[in-house]
Amino acid sequence: MKDIYILGIESSCDEMSASIIKNGNEEIKTIILSQMDIHKKYGGVVPEIASRCHIESATMVLEELFSDIDISFKDITAIAVTHGPGLIGSLLVGLQIAKTLSFVYQKPLIPVHHIAGHIYANNLVKEMQFPLLCLVVSGGHTDLIYMKDHFEFEKIGGTLDDAVGECYDKVARIMNIPYPGGPVIDKLAHKGAHTYHLPLPLDDDSFNFSFSGLKSAVINLVHNEKQRNNEINVENLCTTFQDNVVEIISKKTMKAIQKFNIKNLAICGGVSANSGLREKFEILCKKNNINLSMPSIKYCTDNAAMIATAGFFAYQKGIKSDMSLNAKATESLKEYIQNYK
Ligand code: KG4
Ligand code: ZN
Q: In the CATH hierarchy, which top-level class contains the domain 128-294?
């Protein structure tokens, strides 16, 4: 079989990234340019700044990608791009680049749903096995997705309000931890003890999640302690918060595994870099004989390697678009498959 090289482009939030993946599992090269330091001073991503920075950095990222490798545009089989969901201005930059390259080099254009990308980051670690339960935990999503096979997504649960990464970042802010707070809370959580009382959010029989109550509980706790002139033990609060997050996510995921009798679990998204979550799933999956897959830390957060990998499987499934492809700020996986198959 002829080798398939997919060029992936990802720009849905504050990372501009390009990658080349061979045959859906072999990384040729990936460039990720993060704007984190720029957005840090505003306490979160400023959409207008993000898209402007993408415009400034896109050419540089692509030039860097094709430097020092013996692959050129003519070797590329198809171009995969995140068309949504995400920040509309940010998405449009990556999308316009992909459409231009597709037109100039006459290569097929493959729209890739950002969450499909996160899921397929797992195929860079080991071959995905089906049926598969995917836990997507990121800044914008907290979903449980059942996959019977490649590119067959069935959502069985999701967050009713805040996404878990969003909750991490908001809770961090109240503790004066800079953006993005998730990785810092994760580090501090390892230094503290579970001393505070926080609720275990939406501890019910559903496969849905809710994090706004937990977020409000932390905010109220910090305010109340301040009013009483009591000092907050940030490390202990981080430990308590992270324990509760990991507990509810792992509890519902394992329940879904049992109910649907699944033997394969893949976790993904920015929060899958969380050491508490990774440790917990390693223990639980070993105990229950579940085949666990987690992306390498580098590919938990946004990157184009995951988009090119998903693009490979989308290409096999006949998912493609013409030049009318537009960016989508919101789109479910179900709508995605319906729209482009
Ligand atoms: O997947 P991602 O890069 O962007 C979205 O698609 O949303 O995820 C970013 C999110 C941020 O909320 C960030 O705080 C969180 O992932 N995150 C973490 C960790 N590393 C990144 N949250 C908890 N623990 C971490 N180690
Ligand atoms: Zn993401």
A: alpha beta
